[in-house]
Amino acid sequence: MPKKKTGARKKAENRREREKQLRASRGTIDLAKHPCNASMECDKCQRRQKNRAFCYFCNSVQKLPICAQCGKTKCMMKSSDCVIKHAGVYSTGLAMVGAICDFCEAWVCHGRKCLSTHACACPLTDAECVECERGVWDHGGRIFSCSFCHNFLCEDDQFEHQASCQVLEAETFKCVSCNRLGQHSCLRCKACFCDDHTRSKVFKQEKGKQPPCPKCGHETQETKDLSMSTRSLKFGRQTGGEEGDGASGYDAYWKNLSSDKYGDSSYHDEEEDEDEAEDDEEEEDEVGKDSDAESSDLFTNLNLGRTYASGYAHYEEQDN
């Protein structure tokens, strides 16, 4: 029978477990919640942007800088970690900072740990948007990570990219190396692989994880767990089935494009044609009435003598 654990032993084991979880979670901080990628509002121009040493728009220095590593705005001097000693004095503003990170463009406090570890562990070291290829220094917004392919995205392209990320660069779900159905999908290469072709000699599979992509080494995911779709061509011979008038391929593409582009204008043109036709009819009616009136005026004083229509025809017949 094992010995019964005492209360102090249980507390010590729980404390060690919590510390272990904290250390593990500290290394995997969400990019959107990291202090170097925090949201900041400029004191001068009131524009919201990423945490920076200088404003992206007006280049002004902020009154309360935020440390890119620990996220603090005031140094309390509770430990001897500070490079610049300030015993009994709380330091804020530029008295708290010690450096500027070249990768995230944010202040780093004068703590020895932050100064020595942030440059190597900065999550924005190679932060370049996969869509527009802009870095941290090229735009003022925050940096995000795609939840599918885990590539960096800027604030302008994050929603558009994630909406079209689960699209394969193929027309079927078959494996790129054989003709079997691809059970694993790589969202970076946008390709499917079967069980046999996910085994690679270069990238080894870790225990308890999905097999890596044989092309790029990124962790694959099962295709059935994703909302994957195949590539659809908007231009070319495979644009869809034939329409009622028999147009398909390039003809159908240009026809649909012209109908979408000039659909509203053709509608307005039809209305204008109808109005013009009505005006022409009204003008013709007015011209016809005027001509009838003129002709009646011409024959009002005309005397044709005794005719059948005048009622004198029977007298003429009797005389004869």
UniProtKB/TrEMBL annotation:
List where Acidic residues composition bias occurs: 269-287
Give me the Gene Ontology terms describing cellular component: chromosome, centromeric region; ciliary basal body; cytosol; midbody; nucleolus; nucleoplasm
Single GO term (MF): zinc ion binding
* Subcellular location field: Nucleus, Nucleolus
Residues covered by region (Disordered): 1-22, 206-302
Task: Please indicate if the UniProt record lists Nucleus as a keyword.
Answer: yes
Highest taxon of the source? Eukaryota
Compositional bias segments (type: Basic and acidic residues) = 10-22, 216-225
The entry's keywords? Metal-binding, Nucleus, Repeat, Zinc, Zinc-finger
Which PANTHER family does the record match to this protein?
Answer: ZINC FINGER PROTEIN 330
Q: Which family, according to the similarity comment? A: Belongs to the NOA36 family.
> In its UniProt entry, what is this protein called?
Zinc finger protein 330
Q: Which gene encodes it?
A: ZNF330
